[in-house]
Specification:
- With 503 residues, this protein is an alpha+beta fold.
- It contains 13 helices and 17 strands.
- The strands form three sheets. Strands 1, 8, 9, 10, 11, 12, 13, 14, 15, 16 and 17 form an eleven-stranded mixed β-sheet that branches. A four-stranded antiparallel β-sheet has the order 4-5-7-6, with helices on one face.
- Helix 11 packs antiparallel against helix 12 and helix 12 packs antiparallel against helix 13.
- The chain is globular and about 70 Å long.
- It starts with 43 loop residues before the first strand and ends in a 23-residue tail after the last strand.
């Protein structure tokens, strides 16, 4: 076997500020009277923006909660450059364009059982058969086969040049066999990461303990008390009052109120967009969708709502993902409907308040569209209470913030999952043969430069439908107590607390 190596497609995955084409009940407690702040052994107190929506199943939206808290790991991970790196697999080798063999390192589940090839195969089979399928598997069919105790052969139906990157997705985390005895995957006590999830109190709080037998050594912190606080101002207040040590995704309105050294700004691959319902309602008319695109002033959003902590929207991908190079013009765009055709057309805009800027974005867009002649109703809920309706096409417009490298670490992943007929997360309900063809053409290309061009061509096909109106490309603001060290400021938003994080 060969050591894990850089994949040809890895050059696509560079992240902000790196060179390349395509740029990862909360009461304070300690381990006892001797665990004091500054010892590196205290429990970390963390405020997260998104409460669990699917019982912390790794196969859906909750997957990144588990990875951000250091509970789960996959066969691979992504390094700072977006290159596939060893995780539970210490190496891999490509047998041919359809088969790759992964060699497992000696590691333990939180149950104390060893991570074996059979256990990995079961975990991957559970992910493959999950309903709905994980976004990381959109457009991909794979099977896994154990070869002895420490080798797993993964076979794809079609060539998949980014398979090692794909397997780093939080949705493809490996849980112990006992996690799958019920209808949903249960991560409590079944992960492999540096922290063991020990209890979850509804959508309010989770407790985690250090995993002493982690393959890379025990974590610096003795555990984590995580609180799920959907309101961004409340997260900021919890940080300022000393109730938490880390508060993720602070609203930009809090930037001027936090003390020096507390605010951590990180460029991200996150784009805030309008997703327009192409399957039902008045926006099945492409000319009305084009009129919405023309009516929106993205510069006003970036400079006003985001107070300069974002860039005006240019495409599905922002500068953090594609750099400053040229992108092709959208293809086959409809001409915008005129004022007479718009006159009084009623639409409903929906969004969620876990990211506190989104309701304000939606209000500004509402005003802009009303000025263009639309009659607009606005609906705001917490994300867990709005996702299913958004995916079912209950709204005409859904305002959402999407990390375009989250699912697979490859830019094509978000185009596959969000904008193809069989995509696993498609609030626009887009099904367009031109888009599907462009995405399929890009999927089989391994050469970095050729793949980049093909992905940009697929993006142009998506933008040509006006199913999505990019608004801003975001930067994320975390609040971190100065006493806390080694918080992971991950542009992909997959990680937050790691083995070395401590206070």
């Amino acid at each position: 076997m060969t050591r894990a190596r850089r994949h040809p497609a890895a050059a696509l995955l560079l992240i902000p500020l790196l060179a390349g084409c395509f740029a990862g009940d909360g009461s304070p407690t300690t381990d006892g009277p001797d665990a004091v702040e500054g010892s590196g052994d205290a429990r970390l107190r963390v405020a997260l923006a998104f409460p669990p929506t699917e019982n912390l199943s790794p196969h859906g939206a909750d997957a990144t909660l588990l990875s951000r808290l250091g509970v789960t790991e996959g066969l691979t991970a992504l390094d700072e450059q977006g290159v596939a790196a060893p995780a539970l697999a210490e190496s891999w080798t490509t047998e041919d364009e359809l088969n790759t063999v992964f060699t497992l390192r000696e590691a333990l589940f939180h149950t104390g059982a060893p991570v074996t090839a059979d256990a990995v195969v079961e975990a991957l089979e559970q992910a493959v058969t999950a309903e709905p399928p994980p976004a990381a598997l959109s457009g991909v069919e794979l099977t896994a086969e154990a070869i002895g105790d420490r080798e797993v052969r993964i076979t794809t139906t079609d060539p998949d040049p980014i398979l090692p990157q794909r397997l780093a997705a939080p949705h493809l985390a490996i849980l112990a066999p006992g996690a799958y005895e019920e209808d949903t995957a249960d991560p409590i006590g079944h992960g492999t990461g540096p922290f063991v999830l020990t209890s979850v109190t509804g959508s309010e709080h989770a407790s985690l303990d250090r995993f002493e037998d982690h393959w890379d050594g025990p974590a610096a912190a003795s555990g984590i008390e995580a609180r799920f606080i959907a309101d961004g101002l409340a997260r900021g207040n919890a940080l300022r009052s000393g109730e938490v040590d880390i508060a993720e995704a602070l609203p930009v309105s809090a930037a001027a109120t936090v003390e020096e050294g507390v605010l951590r700004e990180t460029p991200t691959a996150r784009t805030t967009s309008l997703l327009l319902n192409t399957a039902s309602g008045v926006l099945t008319d492409p000319e009305l969708r084009a009129a919405i695109r023309e009516a929106v002033d993205t510069t006003a959003l970036a400079e006003g709502v985001y107070e300069g902590y974002a860039d005006p929207g240019e495409g599905v991908f922002g500068p953090a993902v594609i750099g400053d190079g040229e992108r092709p013009e959208p293809v086959n765009r409809a001409e915008p409907a005129d004022a007479d055709a718009i006159d009084g057309t009623a639409i409903t805009i929906a969004t969620y308040d876990n990211r506190p800027e989104l309701p304000e974005v939606a209000q500004v867009v509402q005003q802009q569209l009303e000025a263009a002649g639309f009659t607009v109703t606005l609906e705001v809920r917490e994300y867990s209470r709005i996702e299913s309706d958004a995916l079912a096409g209950e709204f005409d417009v859904f305002v959402a913030a999407r990390n375009t490298l989250l699912d697979t670490g490859d830019p094509l992943g978000v185009l596959t999952s969000d904008y193809t007929c069989d995509g696993g997360y498609n609030p626009a309900l887009l099904c367009d043969s031109g888009v599907d063809g462009a995405v399929a053409d890009a999927a089989v290309i391994a050469d970095p430069d050729e793949r980049r061009e093909a992905i940009l061509a697929a993006e142009a096909a998506v933008l040509g439908t006006d199913a999505v109106v990019p608004l801003v490309h975001q930067r994320i603001l975390h609040g971190v107590d100065p006493a806390v060290e080694d918080v992971i400021l991950d542009p992909r938003e997959r990680a937050l607390v790691g083995r070395d994080t401590r206070r």
